[in-house]
Write a structure and sequence with these properties.
Blueprint lengths: L6 E3 L2 E4 L2 E4 L3 E3 L7 E8 L4 E2 L5 E9 L5 E6 L11 E4 L8 E8 L4 E3 L3 E5 L1
Parallel strand pairs: 6-12
Antiparallel strand pairs: 1-4, 2-3, 5-7, 7-9, 8-10, 10-11, 10-12
Protein name: FCRL2 protein
InterPro entries: Ig-like_dom, Ig-like_dom_sf, Ig-like_fold, Ig_sub, Ig_sub2
Amino acid sequence: LQRNHSGRYHCGGWVVSHWSESKRVTVTVHRVPLSGVSLSAQPPGGQVALGDSLVLSCKVAAGTGPLSFSWHREGSGAPLGTGPSLELQHVGDNDSGQYQCRVSDGESVAESDPLNVTVL
């Protein structure tokens, strides 16, 4: 459902030999605020060996779409990615740090708790 689906609805059909319609009902679609933004890592815990890959995934428990994602690491300015997951390939020492995902529904923004990534 989208918010523009709000309106008055009814149904109708032929009953014996005449057309009959139901009473009209009003349907209002409300925006569901963003909540429950969480971050997970593969391998779990955010510990990855030097040169290996790390995949971070952002999940949203509730919220009305469409949703947009951005990935951030402490101290970095520009977003690292814009999808629901972020893959770091061939990680190096400079990839260590706290990562966070931000989700927007166009009206509000919610953030995950930071995840500490350690390159071993």
